[in-house]
Amino acid sequence: MVMAIRLDLIADSLPPLSNIQHPLEGIFYLIIIAVFFRWKWPKTWNTFLLKISVNEKKI
Q1: pTM above 0.70?
Q2: What is the domain range of residue 30?
Q3: Which band of pLDDT confidence, cut at 50, 70 and 90, is reported for residue 57?
Q4: In angstroms, what CA-CA distances link 32 with 24, 36, 42, 50, 57?
Q5: What per-residue string of b and e applies to 25-56 under the rule 16 or more CB within 10 Å gives b?
Q6: What end-to-end distance do the CA atoms of the chain give, in Å?
Q7: Residue 28 included in any domain
Q8: Does residue 4 lie within any of the structural domains?
Q9: Which pLDDT value is given to residue 13?
Q10: Helices (H) and strands (E) in the chain, counts
């Protein structure tokens, strides 16, 4: 419940996606959201990064 309220506050503080005028503005918002998640939930963030990463291939 508390997390849902905090996510609502974040959503209210950021403009709607339809109002983004430039690709750099969208990238900026993605970075802000990523920094927030990294700060608030570091273990979950690291798990997410491991899941989307590519395995190293030995040559």
Answers
A1: no
A2: 21-50
A3: confident
A4: 12, 6, 15, 20, 32
A5: eeeeeeeeeeeeeeeeeeeebeeeeeeeeeee
A6: 49
A7: yes
A8: no
A9: 66
A10: 3, 0
* Lookup result for tokens 């990238």: 27
Distance of CA 27 to the CA centre of its chain: 10
Taking the C-alpha atoms of residue 10 and residue 41, their distance in angstroms, rounded to an integer, is 15
Q: Could you give the count of Cα atoms lying within 13 Å of 48 in the half-sphere of its Cβ?
A: 8
Within-domain flag for 34: yes
- Give the tokens for residue 10: 């974040």
Segment 18-55, tens digit of pLDDT: 677 888 888 888 898 889 889 989 999 899 889 999 88
Provide the domain count of the chain. 1
